[in-house]
Amino acid sequence: MRVVLTALVLLGLACADPEVLVEPIETDPAGTVVYSGPEAITRYTDILESELASPLMLERMARAHGMSVDERRRKVNEGITVLGKAAAMQSSGACDASSRFFWTDLSIAILDPLFEGLPGEAVASAFTIATKPAILRNYVYIETGRGIYPGGPMYDSGLDNDATSDRCVTTWLVHSPTAFVYADDATCFWIYGESMHRIVKAGRDEERYHSSVVQGCWNGRGPRNQGI
User: Fold this and answer.
1) 168 pLDDT exceeds 70?
2) Element (H, E) at 92
3) I need a labelling partner for 132 at 20 to 30 A (CA). Which of 32, 83, 153, 197 fits?
4) Hey, which of 18-22, 156-160, 211-215 has the most confident mean pLDDT?
C-alpha cells in the first residue's frame, strides 16, 4: 500500500542565471538506475556538491528550509562528511541483524532539455546508508504537472522504482525513471517526489520515508538544473 507523505518542502524556483548552473545528474537512458557500494556514495556526493557549486541553488534551498545560507551550507557539508564516513564503512558479507539506519535522504533534480523547446526532465533519487551489511530496499516515486501543485500524489500517473538488494550492502542508491516536465501557459510547473527506505530483516523491517515538492516557473528555455 502506498503511503501519502505530508511533510512537503516547497521551493519557489524562478529562472536561473546560466553562470550559476550545475551539471545535471547522470541518468540511464533506459530510465531506472540502481547503485550500491562506493559508486552509490560517489554519485550521491556529486548531488550534494552540485548544490554547493551553485550560489543560486544554495540560497533557494536555505529559504525552503528556513535557514540562512551559511546554515544550509553547513548542513550540506555535514551530509558530505556523512558520505565520507560511509565510504570508510564499506563492507559486504553476511547480513547483520543489528543493522540500523545511518543516514537516509531524497533528492529531486531537474535536467536541461536535450534541445531547446523540448520539455525538461526530472529524476528523484533515494539514498540509504546502514550501519552494517543488510538487505536494503528503496522505493522512489516521481510525478510532475503543470501550474501549482494541487496536493495529493496521483500515483496512477507517476513513475516509480522499487528495488531490493540481492546481497548484503551498506549503501543503496535508486534513481526513478525520468519524468518529463511540462509547464502551463504561465510557464509554471511542479514536481513531487517521495521515497521509502527499508532495512529488510527476518523479524520486523525498519522503514523511513521522505517527500518533497519542487515548484516554480521557467523562462521558456526549459528548467535550469535546479533541484533538491
Assistant:
1) yes
2) none
3) 32
4) 156-160
